[in-house]
Amino acid sequence: MKRTLTMVAKELRSCFSTPIAYIFLVIYLVATQGFFFYLFFRVGESDLRLFFFWQPVFMLFLIPAVTMRSWAEERKVGTMELLMTLPVPDVVVVVGKFLACLIFWGIALALTVTLPWTVYRMAAEGVAVDSGPIIGGYVGLFLLGAVYIAICLFASSITENQIIAFIMGLTFCGVLLLIGSTLILYTVPEFLVKPFQFIGLWANFENISRGVLDSRNVIYYLSIVVFFLYLNASMIESRKWK
């Protein structure tokens, strides 16, 4: 555990030692909060339903951009060999990078708490705001972010080109997200609807964001995280012998 925490601290220092992390946070906050307040002032929409609906799409671009350099940059600048000679198992390095990115994503989400605060403040007097979907939405976004991060870290471990890593991460996440979307479910044969709902990230996120925390959705997300972290560790291990 101590070695994992040391790796997490190293990755976070590396992340926040450059302006890139702050730029990504600013872009994310401007995009998401600007969208929310546009709906509020122009459309009169003062709940977070549409905010949560569009978040998985915003995340498709933010998270691959944050993670694309995780492994690709290590190989490009030649620090990969040094990292792999550290007296720690590969899985510790992989989990350390994953947790550092997950903390970064948690910080980004925490900075949006002004939005539910605005909803509570703007609610008509005597009208209770249902907290269930708001809490469920944030839990769903955190879990979905963990899935995106695990997938994108694996994509970054495949290539030393950051642009290719970004495109691969976006593509992998995008495909898994769209499979469970209403747009796809309406176009596939009926016998494929249930399987697509099960494996689709969007369908699982929608269930959680309604405020109903189903253990099946949580287990599915965690299974994907573990699977791609395993692939990531296997990819790093295989490169030691090349």
Our count of helices gives 13
Total discrete domains? 1
- Biggest sheet architecture: none
Instruction: Please give the share of residues in helix.
Output: over 70%
Mean pLDDT, nearest integer? 81
Number of strands: 0
User: Class by helix and strand content?
Assistant: mainly alpha
C-alpha Rg (nearest Å)? 19 Å
Overall geometric form: globular
What percentage of amino acids are in beta strands? under 5%
Distance between the termini: 29 Å
Which spans of ≥5 residues are poorly predicted at pLDDT below 50?
A: none
- The arrangement of helices and strands along the chain is HHHHHHHHHHHHH
Tell me which oligomeric state these chains represent: single chain
Please outline what is shown here:
The protein has helices at 2-16, 19-43, 49-67, 69-76, 80-84, 90-110, 114-122, 131-158, 162-179, 182-185, 190-199, 201-209, 215-240. It is an all-alpha fold and 242 residues long. It has one domain.
Highlighted features:
242 residues, mainly alpha, 0% strand
Write the layout of secondary structure elements.
Blueprint: H1 2-16, H2 19-43, H3 49-67, H4 69-76, H5 80-84, H6 90-110, H7 114-122, H8 131-158, H9 162-179, H10 182-185, H11 190-199, H12 201-209, H13 215-240
